[in-house]
Amino acid sequence: MADASKWKFRGEGNACLVLVNLEEKMVFRLAKSKYWGKGQLATNAENKVDMIHEEMQLVVDYMKNVMQPLLSPYFVVLPELRLLNGRLTEEAEYQIKASRPGKIAIIMQLQSCDYCNKVVMHCTWEKNFLKFNKLVHTPTLSVEIKPKKAFMHVQDSLNVKSEEKSQVCKFCMHQRLKAKEGQWPVTSRYCPLDLFSGNRVRMKQALLSLAETPQNNLRICQDGEEIHGAWNKGDMCEVLEGFFGSSHNGVSNGVHKGHKLMQIFMDLVLEALLYVPGDIDDSLFEMSNSNPLTVQYCQNSRYRPDLHSDCDNCGDLPTGCVLERILSTQMLDSLDIDGIFPLYLKLKKCISEAPALRRRLCMDGPYCGDDWLQACSQLSCDVDDDLFIEDLDCISSMVNKVKRFLISKTVQDCSVMVALQRVPDSYNEDEGGQLLKDVEGRLFRFSVSLVDLDPKPFCKIPNYHKQDNEIINAYREACGGEFSGTVDET
């Protein structure tokens, strides 16, 4: 931290503070001691630092053994666990205070000698290009998207208790609760069901809606520096002019120029989100493809099928693209919290009666091998002599459903990183690398990756249940006391 100009605040959550090192081109997630070091699996550790190390190693194991097989190693890059020596974290807290937006500023509780997860920045490239015998730097624009829950559970499911949840997506309903609590000055115009529809018209509208009302679901950076987000809305017209160059066929110089350039940019982002890696291994995804889903429409979406009758309203996401991987993995949960919470209560009771069962079930890890979802299937022949459970098969089934729910929750909270860099017109496509081409034939390097894939703890299920009830109640209140299915024109 000796040179503060090399470090930038990226964001923070309940568990971590995120900094970027512009010199190393690395992202550092620093653990907050208030959240870490309390896990069930770390009770034998000698001190809190050892506990934090053990728990953060579980995060790495979870990403490697659960997330990578489901979402593809192409999209999931594993972090490196690093010990931060000295008083680095105290200096970090001091130096980034001025950068942290007031809306999310909280008292930091960082360990003075702590562990962090380090990962390569997904929003910049080191390589410059040779032009007229001189190295020329071309900027990298990156888009971070938190897509959120991408489907609705069907109404005829015995587990879905409210009519609203089968007609309005969770994200759109949650907006009413956020408005009630005053979290954001403007209601988001984004709907996840549009982004995951496979219909390019709907998908592009979803991306433009994110740009219009980003909240904490979209952030655009240039060479790692945020230029557009909830608390930082720069001049995107000027940025995109520099990004695309001087030639913009069909783009006027009028007041709508910025909007037109944003549309062209989002077309590139959309192509990256639909990209299917050539070496994708479909056998990895058999489990997550077990719940086929018909096209869904959220009644709060700005998209209206009747106004786009000339469009293909039933598009499919290409198998293996990042959005299809996210959707398929989210759909491992077939019960929603309404069906999962009763199972949680039953399992909690079983564990309280037989504490050794918790270790056997591996609810919160360890995530060793690729069979974590099946870890409880051998209970009947692996159980301790002093552990008696009447129906091990029933417990195994419940645990499997709960684990699938927790996997789904992880992916509902993940972020997609899309990075784009213009390459010179003289660039030889035969040199390799992933390239996209815009409507004017300009070439762009790109990358797509997934971050924020930490495991969700078993003990958090009551919180999900409580929040779900709060969301539904806030939505009903906003609709005048009863569900009317009306469209939000906010």
Strand order of the largest sheet: 10-9-8-11-13-12
Helix content: 25-40%
Structural class: alpha+beta
Radius of gyration: 24 Å
Count of DSSP-assigned helices: 13
Overall number of domains: 2
Gross geometry: globular
Report the count of strand segments. 13
Unreliable sequence segments: 41-45, 102-113, 128-134, 380-388, 483-490
Taking the sheet with the most strands, its summary is:
6 strands, antiparallel
Order of H and E elements? EEEHEHEEEEHHHEEHHHHHHHEEEH
How far apart are the first and last residues' alpha carbons, in Å? 44 Å
Beta-sheet strand percentage?
Answer: 5-15%
Please tell me the overall pLDDT.
Answer: 78
Keywords:
6-stranded antiparallel beta sheet, 5-stranded antiparallel beta sheet, 490 residues, 2 domains, globular, 14% strand, Phosphorylase Kinase, domain 1, alpha+beta
Task: Explain what you see.
By secondary structure, the chain is an alpha+beta fold. The chain folds into two domains: 4-120, 2-Layer Sandwich (Phosphorylase Kinase, domain 1), CATH 3.30.200.110; 140-333 and 408-478, no CATH class. It has helices spanning 48-71, 88-96, 170-181, 192-195, 200-212, 236-244, 257-273, 322-330, 336-353, 356-361, 379-382, 392-412, 461-478, and strands at 7-12, 16-21, 26-31, 80-83, 115-120, 129-131, 134-136, 140-145, 218-222, 225-228, 415-422, 435-437, 443-451. The strands form three sheets. Strands 10-9-8-11-13-12 form a six-stranded antiparallel β-sheet, with helices on one face. The longest helix is centred in the N-terminal third of the chain and has 24 residues, at 48-71. The chain is globular, with a radius of gyration of 24 Å. The model is unreliable at 41-45, 102-113, 128-134, 380-388 and 483-490 (pLDDT under 50).
